[in-house]
Amino acid sequence: MAKFYDTLLGEYIKNPWQKKIGLDSLALNCFNYKMISYDEITGKWKINFKDVNLSDASVYSGEDVYMTHKIYEKQKEEKINENKVLQEIEIPLLEVLKNMEIGGVKINRDKLKEIGMLLENEIARLEKEIYHLAGENFNISSPKQVGEILFVKLGIGATKKTKTGFSVDSDVLESLSHKYPIAESIKNFRHYKKLLSTYVEGLINEMDDEEKVHTSYNQTVTTTGRLSSTNPNLQNIPIWEGIAGEIRTAFIPYNEQDFLLAFDYSQVEVRLLALMSWDENLISAFQNGIDIHYNTAKFIFGKESISKTERKIAKAVNFWVIYGISPFWLSEMLGISRSDAKNYIDKFYENYPKVSNFFDAIIKNCEENGFVETIFWRRRYINGINDKNRIIKQSAEREATNMPIQGTSADIIKIAMIQIYDFLKKNNYKTSLIMQVHDELVFNLIAEEKEKIIPEIQKIMENILPNKNIKLLVEWNIWKNWKEAK
DNA sequence: TAGGATTGCAA
DNA sequence: TATTGCAATCCTA
After folding, report:
1. CA–CA separation, A87 and A418 (whole Å)
2. Which nucleotide lies closest to A223 by the C1' atom and the CA atom?
């Protein structure tokens, strides 16, 4: 048992789907008690808390402590405090995340500014070009104005609509770009603008005096058990080729002599599908080190010699299984016919029959009990699993089949983080964990510790699930920035 | 000023 | 007619 407890994590474990699990809403819902808000106590002038009069401050603070304890007592009655995921994963993870957040990630400000200058030049150039092609100035960042220019003023035929008007997303612009140069330019403008405002300016704004950013990892947001990251979000930094990929070169080690060390789980979700479904063909492919996309391609195309395009299709089909995409969408995404898409999916299930059984069993169980679980028994309730509406029912089924895989992957990396943190701490290593991106862990590596810790971290990560039918596999890289270490 | 809508970035 | 997220921006209420 951990030495401390967290009621917020307790509520999250009980039901990760419910949104309002904060102290204020729990007090209201469980005990019909309205907590004093911070705004009420600091008044409309937003005075500093130290200037609040003592009796008001005491009541406000006492209320927090009292209510937290009341909720703790309630959770004890419900035996939430005995939950294994809570005790063995979420609560121990708190200290790991705290240290990652405080440690921060070092950013090369000059490098970011350099990228920013390039982007600004491109944006200015494209802006002029777009105004010229449109014959007037307008706000290119406004979807509404872009729609008016393209589909009203220039009279281009609109293809897609949103709730409020014309859709002008990148797919639409892409489809118009061959015929209309302005569409291509707007698409590029958007791309560069996104990089500049979200990543270059966004990161610079979050940097402290030491050129570090300190993200917040939120443990109680996702329905599957994954973490999320905010201020800044370090889990959606671009990885594209070209200038977008350059953003990652600005992520650097703390000191010049250090390195970034990145570990990632290789194809973890497909591996977990094999492990959890017990499908012999999937398992033997992994056991024999056969490229899994090639293996699927062999099945769906019924031949040994596989082209690059065929492997790409097989990769999409493998990917599809995790998310439950329909043949329609698969055909759209791959630019193939719907009957081909359906055929590939059927072939997949014919050759990996236990995957099909596995999903059926999850859905059946969910229909009866209302929830699904990971192999570590993390639970998620699924709304709409017994809905009469086919669309809602199918959507619920996709959520139900996705969660055990995505959630187990989340469990595994969280356990790895705890074990690695303990290992580094126990041996007084100065190397530290600085980022988590769902299936990847990034460390600030102290050069002289390299030989000792890399094999140990690899061992920990690969052995979270010992004695299973297939092995987890991790890959690692070290470099002076995150782009090259990936 | 708050919050919905659109868009686009990641695993 | 694809799973899970977060942020910038626009724009209406």
Report:
1. 12
2. C4
pLDDT at A139: 95
Tell me the per-residue pLDDT of A343-353, one tens digit each, with 9 for 90 and over.
999 999 999 99
Question: Residue A459 corresponds to which amino acid?
Answer: K
Position A44 scores a pLDDT of 61
- Residue with minimal CA–C1' distance to B6 is A143
Mean pLDDT for chain A overall: 93
At residue A336, the pLDDT reads 87
Residues A350 and A314: their CA atoms lie apart, in Å, by 14
Count Cβ atoms within 10 A of the Cβ of residue A115 and give its class: 0-12 exposed, 13-18 middle, 19 or more buried: buried
Q: Report the pLDDT value the prediction gives residue A486, as an integer from 0 to 100.
A: 65
CA of A457 to C1' of C11 (A): 50
Contacts of A183 (CB under 8 A, 6+ apart): A150, A172, A173, A174, A176, A177
pLDDT value of position A17:
83
Cβ(A434)–Cβ(A100) below 8 Å: yes
Q: How many Å apart are A198 CA and C10 C1'?
A: 16
Q: What is the pLDDT of residue A48?
A: 79
* DSSP SS3 for A298: helix
Please report the pLDDT score of residue A421 as a whole number. Answer: 98
Distance between CA atoms of A379 and A365, rounded to whole angstroms?
Answer: 12
The helix or strand, by DSSP H or E, that contains position A380, with its residue range, turns out to be strand A379-381
Q: Which residues of chain A have pLDDT under 50?
A: none
Burial A281-301 (b: 16+ CB within 10 A, else e): ebbebbeeeeebbebbbbbbb
DSSP letters spanning A129-178: HHHHHHTS---TT-HHHHHIIIIIIS-PPP--B-SSSB--SHHHHHHHHT
Beta strands, E only, A164-298? 212-213, 216-218, 228-230, 251-252, 259-265
CA of A46, C1' of B11: distance in angstroms: 40
pLDDT at A376: 96
Any idea how long chain A is? 486
DSSP assignment of A311-362, as one string? HHHHHHHHHHHHHT--HHHHHHHHT--HHHHHHHHHHHHHHSHHHHHHHHHH
* Bases of strand C lying below 7 A from some protein CB: 1-12
- pLDDT for the residue A2: 57
Calculate the CA dihedral of residues A6, A264, A202, A45 and round it to 10 degrees.
0
pLDDT of residue A326: 83
User: What residues approach strand B to within 7 A at the CB?
Assistant: A 143, 162-165, 167-171, 173, 187, 190-191, 194-195, 235-240, 244, 437-440
Strand pairing class (A216-218; A371-373): unpaired
**Cα separation of A308 and A297, whole Å?**
10
